């Protein structure tokens, strides 16, 4: 197991979600309807508005061991005590043990961080950003839709790595692997591999499309 940069250990409520991996700095809207999680949200709103999001692992039949803390930044109460909440990812954590299971899980967690990089990662981040722009350009051309990256795309390597990871769709297990990494360079390298494969696939489809038009 990779060593963690633990800055604190604390108990937090935990919210397992299938096919959902939250990353630091990324938004996550939620519709809360299940009774136990309505209780959880009402309790959280009376405290620091923070809880842990864990991807539910269908293979293991349990939540992943590493997740991301979410902070409620806006909420709306609906009929029947249902709730819409908008959360923002904060620190990552590793579950050390479960303190309580009912009515909802509470875990003892340690915060984890990426290890300080040994080299400057700006060039690697620029490579990943260019691959991302290539993918978006080819996707727009292939679908004949206007697709653009946000103007405030992160430029710091670690923040960019979280942004890219959070925007990979349909690959929750891959996202979980990226979340668990504590090496920014390794995360960026893996994202470069994924984006290169995607770019090559889209480029081939674009050539075929142009050939038949």
From TrEMBL:
<keyword id="KW-0175">Coiled coil</keyword>
<protein>
    <submittedName>
        <fullName>LON peptidase substrate-binding domain-containing protein</fullName>
    </submittedName>
</protein>
<feature type="domain" description="Lon N-terminal">
    <location>
        <begin position="12"/>
        <end position="199"/>
    </location>
</feature>
<dbReference type="Pfam" id="PF02190">
    <property type="entry name" value="LON_substr_bdg"/>
</dbReference>
<dbReference type="InterPro" id="IPR003111">
    <property type="entry name" value="Lon_prtase_N"/>
</dbReference>
<dbReference type="InterPro" id="IPR046336">
    <property type="entry name" value="Lon_prtase_N_sf"/>
</dbReference>
<dbReference type="InterPro" id="IPR015947">
    <property type="entry name" value="PUA-like_sf"/>
</dbReference>
<feature type="coiled-coil region">
    <location>
        <begin position="121"/>
        <end position="198"/>
    </location>
</feature>
């Amino acid at each position: 197991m990779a060593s963690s940069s633990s800055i604190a250990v604390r108990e937090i409520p935990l919210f397992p979600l299938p096919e959902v991996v939250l990353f630091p700095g990324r938004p996550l809207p939620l519709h809360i309807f299940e009774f136990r999680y309505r209780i959880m949200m009402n309790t959280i709103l009376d405290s620091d508005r923070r809880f842990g999001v864990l991807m539910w692992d269908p293979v293991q039949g349990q939540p992943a061991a590493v997740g991301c803390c979410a902070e409620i930044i806006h909420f709306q109460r609906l009929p029947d005590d249902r709730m819409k909440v908008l959360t923002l990812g904060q620190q990552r954590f590793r579950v050390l043990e479960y303190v309580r299971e009912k009515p909802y899980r509470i875990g003892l967690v340690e915060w984890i961080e990426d290890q300080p990089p040994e080299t400057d990662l700006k060039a690697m981040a620029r490579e990943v950003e260019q691959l991302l722009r290539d993918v978006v350009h080819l996707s727009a051309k292939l679908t004949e839709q206007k697709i653009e990256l946000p103007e405030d795309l992160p430029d710091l390597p670690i923040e960019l790595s979280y942004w890219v990871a959070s925007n990979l769709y349909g690959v929750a297990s891959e996202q979980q692997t990226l979340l668990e990494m504590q090496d920014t360079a390794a995360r960026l390298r893996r994202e470069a591999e994924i984006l290169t494969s995607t770019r090559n696939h889209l480029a081939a489809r674009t050539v075929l499309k142009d050939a038949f038009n």
